[in-house]
Amino acid sequence: MRILGIETSCDETAAAVVEDGRRVLSSVVATQDRLHLPYGGVVPEIASRAHLAAILPVLHRALEESKTSLDEIDAVAVVNAPGLVGALLVGLTSAKTVSWLIDRPLVGVNHLHAHIYACALERAEPLFPCVSLVASGGHTSLFHSRSPLEHELLGCTLDDAAGEAFDKAASLLDLGYPGGPAIDRAARAGDRRAIAFPRMKLKAADSLDFSFSGIKTAVLYHCRGPNGRQPRLLSDQEKANVSASFQEAVVDTLVDRLTSAAERTQEGRIAIGGGVTANSRLRERLTDAAKRRGLELVMPPMRFCVDNGAMVAGLAWHLLQAGRVADLTLDVLPTSRAAALAR
Length: 343
Ligand code: KG4
Ligand code: ZN
What we know:
CATH architecture of the largest domain: 2-Layer Sandwich
Bound molecules: 5'-O-[(R)-(carboxyoxy)(hydroxy)phosphoryl]adenosine, zinc ion
Strand content: 15-25%
CATH superfamily of the largest domain: ATPase, nucleotide binding domain
Strand order of the largest sheet: 3-2-1-4-5
Low-confidence stretches: none
CATH class of the largest domain: Alpha Beta
Largest sheet: 5 strands, mixed
Distance between the termini: 32 Å
Radius of gyration: 20 Å
Shape: globular
CATH topology of the largest domain: Nucleotidyltransferase, domain 5
Structural class: alpha/beta
Helix content: 40-55%
Order of helices and strands: EEEHHEHEHEEEHHHHEHEHH
């Protein structure tokens, strides 16, 4: 069964063709990084317009590269929540149109669950049950994932997402957008013990929630003085030290929460997904922590960490098997409502 998967929830226009939930026949991603660069973050209106311009060429390429014609597509899957409303609408409307045109089922996919499913692509061994972490530009959530379709929320960020903190820190350091890869690169030349940035502390000691606004503010004060308004000229070495120290603080928190969740649920397998899980230090630290605790760690290949259509088409195969087919009344769920439903 060949499923066409479409993803436009944030700033990547993506489409892919995946066979039987695992075999990726094509995965095309058009990034909008250049358009958002001057703003240091995603501008929703710009994102929607760029999706409109990119969606048809991306769909054509995904079909072409998979050597699949439209009438060989068995179902059309699309992320309809959570994400930026205008951006989601472009993908949803395109998916509905293709589904109606070829008279094949339409499947609505949750973006966070798709990020976890990215670990199952091209993988022969089982992935579920596991404890999973989705860390991206818009989300930081921990789940107890019992199957591709059953994800119990264990904790999530109470303020900023991990990726948002990376983007903000990079912008304060003038490293460009997206900030994650820039900090990751700069940190290689830095000393991670140079600055003792605060580790997150929540009121409930056993909480599996996250908070990244404190570290973001600490980087702001470090770079711009105690009132945040006196920019200091930092040398490349100082920027590398801030990057490495900031990255270590965020990674500490992510590793701590994920391993605590595995302990609490007694799961022996952990999986990660979302743009931040492309971070080299996070992958290194998690590999180490998993080895020491005897946990199996599953990480998606780099190209499936960031937003892509393959994770959407892959997960949709399981939704279809479970009869979870949508119709043309399918709507997008704004971020806050989708998050509330996931609780
Ligand atoms: O999953 P994704 O492509 O989109 C969302 O669903 O948000 O994640 C994008 C986020 C951005 O904040 C970006 O800075 C971050 O992932 N990111 C990274 C790295 N690569 C991308 N963060 C840390 N280290 C990286 N290497
Ligand atoms: Zn994402």
